């Protein structure tokens, strides 16, 4: 990226950040619809089944939702609360929902980034190998591997990894993000977190690894027939150079598009992986709120994770523009 | 046309493997009841018997002494049922959205695509979890929730097919003959847009089965129905001591997902032959 693109990026970000607004509005509308259709009134659903909320809080909630008013007014109340980022209070966890979510966010982001890193790197390597040796033994081996990893349920793979690598071999820790009780500082802390990240990140990565491998292979094969590759060959560039600098660079673009499209699905995968590995992130929080029937928290997580997907997508677009200078921001 | 298609499908290696695996699972779901007729919730033996330890429970028993084989048979039925019905729901919603948007374009299209984008932005599994949790876990809510979260790719695909097809000459001809919109969509455009939809539906079944397993693994399964995810969820506390309780249903999920992915791949080769060389 040259220096004169930086103001363009800033302008683009300013423009795109407004796209979060319709998403928040849409999800809030969807949440409201779900609450209306659910059995019992909104407050019954939100306060949970077992009645952990105090009667005072229930009365306060009923007032804040305007439940004695007509439906459009109720909707306006709900949208107002959401727009002011007032996601309510979780009685089970005794904390405001937004605060709970923000506390858990960094762990989920770490897991997602680690898993995506693994999936992209190994997907590119396998994709390049199978495109380079198309219809030969290596290609066939990769495609069988891809087929199987695609079929493995993430949460099951995680459980089996715990059995093998934590229980039988004792190589890696099986739960949490740090060792409980160990008071570590500096590099020792980072090393501890890294060791805890390996199994959850790899379990989450396998599914996407399969998708990226297929995508890179298809894109590379397409580019091997393109004019600019023939030109490079005619100029006497080596096969390795053509593969890595000409075909792969272009094949990374569809990969970025796919990555952007899949952010929501990666977050979904994180919910499962986190509940297997007791990873203290958003997914684990969602699992806890299911167990406690804390629906207000659950709806808050749905809203927040959708907003996060939208924001991450904006960043994907910026990276896309960096990779491909033809794209205007 | 159809017998020829079937013949070609059987000659395709992916499709044939997929069909064989699928037949195996279907046998398990139907004939399995003859061998293992009991109620999967009945406690029939000593808890945590390993597979092969006792011929009365060939695949062992779980922590509560329930027969694993009976549970797996019940799970096969649940998986197939939820996978097929939820995919049907998502196909109907997706085709409706895509067909209306692609055919009418303009503001209808803009509106429908906005809704589609919204459903694509929301993390699908989280939305399914919310729907099932709030509307009480059951086979019906799980099927409905999985259908509701999985239609956007179908809608986009159908829309793009409709945008291309509506400009073709045979459609223009039918329009000139005075054919109404409804007939034009249903009898002329839709049949030609279906092949890629069939491929995506086969892959959707695979995803739906995985989603169902994940839901019941998290404890959001029908409390009266034994599904593969339920067995894995119940066995996870003991997974280190008795990995087969989680292991066997997981292998079953892998087989059925492989079956539908291979079938989808084979269908793609036969229905879109121009892509075969990729």
UniProtKB/TrEMBL annotation, chain A:
Protein name as annotated: ABC transporter permease
Keyword Coiled coil in record: no
Organism of derivation: Pseudothauera rhizosphaerae
PANTHER family noted in UniProt: ABC TRANSPORTER PERMEASE PROTEIN (PTHR43163:SF9), DIPEPTIDE TRANSPORT SYSTEM PERMEASE PROTEIN DPPB-RELATED (PTHR43163)
One GO location term (cellular component): plasma membrane
Stretches assigned to the ABC transmembrane type-1 domain: 105-320
Gene3D superfamilies with a match to the protein in the record: MetI-like
Family that this chain belongs to: Belongs to the binding-protein-dependent transport system permease family.
InterPro entries assigned: BPD_transp_1_N, MetI-like, MetI-like_sf
Annotated keywords: Cell membrane, Membrane, Transmembrane, Transmembrane helix, Transport
Domain of life: Bacteria
GO biological-process terms attached to the record: transmembrane transport
Automatic annotation (TrEMBL), chain B:
Stored PANTHER family: D,D-DIPEPTIDE TRANSPORT SYSTEM PERMEASE PROTEIN DDPC-RELATED, OLIGOPEPTIDE TRANSPORT SYSTEM PERMEASE PROTEIN APPC
Segments traversing the membrane: 15-36, 78-104, 125-151, 242-263
Keywords of this entry: Cell membrane, Membrane, Transmembrane, Transmembrane helix, Transport
Family indicated by similarity: Belongs to the binding-protein-dependent transport system permease family.
Domain ABC transmembrane type-1: 76-264
UniProt-annotated location(s): Cell membrane
InterPro entries listed in its UniProt record: BP-dependent_transpt_permease, MetI-like, MetI-like_sf
Membrane topology: Multi-pass membrane protein
Classification via Pfam families: BPD_transp_1 (PF00528)
Tagged with keyword Transport: yes
GO BP: any one term: transmembrane transport
Gene Ontology cellular-component terms listed: plasma membrane
Coiled-coil portions: none
The protein's name: ABC transporter permease
Primary location class: membrane
């Amino acid at each position: 990226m040259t220096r004169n693109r930086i103001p363009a990026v800033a302008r683009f970000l300013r423009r795109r950040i407004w796209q979060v607004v319709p998403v928040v509005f849409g999800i809030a509308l969807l949440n409201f619809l779900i609450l209306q259709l659910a059995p019992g009134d909104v407050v019954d659903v939100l306060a949970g089944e077992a009645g952990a909320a105090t009667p005072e809080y229930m009365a306060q909630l009923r007032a804040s939702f305007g439940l004695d008013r007509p439906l459009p007014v109720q909707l306006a109340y709900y949208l107002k609360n959401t727009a002011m980022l007032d996601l309510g209070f979780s009685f089970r966890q005794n904390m405001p929902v937004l605060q709970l979510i923000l506390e858990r966010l960094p762990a989920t982001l770490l897991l997602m980034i680690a898993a995506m890193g693994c999936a992209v790197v190994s997907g590119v390597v396998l994709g390049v190998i199978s495109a380079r040796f198309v219809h030969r033994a290596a290609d066939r081996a990769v495609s069988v591997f891809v087929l199987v990893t695609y079929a493995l349920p993430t949460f099951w793979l995680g459980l089996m990894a715990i059995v093998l690598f934590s229980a039988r071999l004792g190589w890696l820790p099986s739960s949490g993000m740090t060792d409980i009780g160990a008071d570590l500082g500096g590099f020792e802390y980072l090393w501890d977190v890294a060791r805890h990240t390996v199994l959850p990140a790899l379990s989450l990565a396998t599914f996407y690894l399969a998708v990226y491998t297929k995508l890179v292979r298809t894109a590379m094969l397409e580019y091997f027939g393109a004019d600019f590759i023939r030109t490079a060959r005619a100029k006497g560039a080596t096969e390795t150079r053509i593969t890595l600098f000409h075909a792969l660079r272009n094949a990374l673009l569809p990969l970025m598009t796919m990555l952007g499209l899949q952010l929501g699905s990666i977050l979904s995968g994180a919910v499962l992986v986190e509940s297997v590995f007791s990873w203290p992130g958003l997914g684990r929080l969602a699992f806890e709120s299911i167990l406690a029937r804390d629906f207000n928290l659950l709806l808050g997580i749905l809203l927040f994770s959708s907003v996060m997907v939208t924001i991450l997508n904006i960043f994907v677009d910026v990276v896309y523009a960096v990779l491909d200078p033809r794209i205007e921001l | 046309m159809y017998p020829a298609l079937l013949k070609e499908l059987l000659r395709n290696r992916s499709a044939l493997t997929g069909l064989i695996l699928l037949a195996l699972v279907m046998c398990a779901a139907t004939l399995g009841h003859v061998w293992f007729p009991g109620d999967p919730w009945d406690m029939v033996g000593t808890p945590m018997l390993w597979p092969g330890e006792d011929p009365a429970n060939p695949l062992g028993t779980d922590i509560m002494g329930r027969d694993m084989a009976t549970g797996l048979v019940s799970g096969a039925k649940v998986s197939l049922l939820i996978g097929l019905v939820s995919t049907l729901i998502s196909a109907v919603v997706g085709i409706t959205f895509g067909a209306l948007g692609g055919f009418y374009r303009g503001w209808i299209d803009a509106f429908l695509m906005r809704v589609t984008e919204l459903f694509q932005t929301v993390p699908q599994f989280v939305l399914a979890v919310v729907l099932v949790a709030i509307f009480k876990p059951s086979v019906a809510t799980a099927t409905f929730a999985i259908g509701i979260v999985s239609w956007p790719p179908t809608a986009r695909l159908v829309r793009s097919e409709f945008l291309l097809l509506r400009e073709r000459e045979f459609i223009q001809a039918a329009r000139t003959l005075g054919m109404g919109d409804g007939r034009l969509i249903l009898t002329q455009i839709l049949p030609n847009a279906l092949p890629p939809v069939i491929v995506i539906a086969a892959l959707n079944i695979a995803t739906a089965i995985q989603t169902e397993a994940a839901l019941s693994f998290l404890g959001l399964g029908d409390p009266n129905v034994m599904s593969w995810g339920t067995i894995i969820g119940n066995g996870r506390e003991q997974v280190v001591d008795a990995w087969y309780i989680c292991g066997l249903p997981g292998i079953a999920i892998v087989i059925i997902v492989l079956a539908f992915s291979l079938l989808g791949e084979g269908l793609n080769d036969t229905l879109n032959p121009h892509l075969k060389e990729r």
